[in-house]
Amino acid sequence: MCGIVSAIARNNVVPTLLEGLFRLEYRGYDSAGLVVANEGLNRLRTTARVAELDKLASEENAMGHAGIAHTRWATHGAPSERNAHPHFSDKASKIAIVHNGIIENHEVMRKRLQAEGFKFLSDTDTEVIAHLVAFHHAKSAS
Ligand code: GLU
């Protein structure tokens, strides 16, 4: 079962995100990841325990005032780092997505978005959301 944590605060939210993931760890998962916003988006992902994500965050001195975090229970795409959430769109550097559940029409959405030039970097259904948001964001900005 997936777990989702998000935080926005005046102080660094990385400890809050990790604390949330540690609390959700009992539910089971196959990979974990987070993104924090700090002069761009900084993403960390692993197929190991949340403790490993915590270690990566310390090593990279990850920090930011807003972030999202996820523990994944794979339904589409193998449990791997490239399939772990959060997902980005190649056409929007400020959009990161985490998701719970299944997108039933992801195959048709994937084909449509590929035809628009979006490049998929994972095997997940989730990634279509990142590209779809980027697509509509670009349209509304033009
Ligand atoms: N369907 C998504 C995936 O396979 C989300 C799974 C989940 O709820 O953790 O990545």
Task: Report on the architecture of this protein.
The mean pLDDT is 96. The chain has helices spanning 14-24, 50-59, 106-115, 127-141, and strands at residues 3-8, 31-37, 41-46, 66-72, 87-89, 92-97. The protein contains four helices and six strands, in the order βαββαβββαα. It is globular and about 40 Å long. It is an alpha+beta fold. The protein has a four-stranded antiparallel β-sheet with strand order 1-4-2-3, covered by helices on one side. A two-stranded antiparallel ribbon has the order 5-6. The structure holds glutamic acid.
Task: Summarize this structure as a short list of keywords or feature phrases.
globular, binds glutamic acid, 32% helix, alpha+beta, two-stranded antiparallel ribbon, 142 residues, single chain, 25% strand, four-stranded antiparallel beta sheet, 6 strands
Topology:
Layout: E1 3-8, H1 14-24, E2 31-37, E3 41-46, H2 50-59, E4 66-72, E5 87-89, E6 92-97, H3 106-115, H4 127-141
Antiparallel strand pairs: 1-4, 2-3, 2-4, 5-6
Helix pairs in contact: 1-2, 3-4
Bound molecules: glutamic acid (GLU).
Glutamic acid is lined by residues 2, 72-77, 99-102, 124-126.
Rg estimate, integer Å: 15 Å
| C-alpha end-to-end distance | 39 Å
Total strand count, please?
6
Largest sheet: 4 strands, antiparallel
Average pLDDT score: 96
Strand composition percent? 15-25%
Low-confidence stretches: none
Arrangement of strands in the largest sheet: 1-4-2-3
Order of helices and strands: EHEEHEEEHH
Note the total helix count: 4
Shape, per Cα inertia axes: globular
Q: Are any ligands bound, and if so which? A: glutamic acid
State the secondary-structure class.
alpha+beta
Specify the helix fraction band. Answer: 25-40%
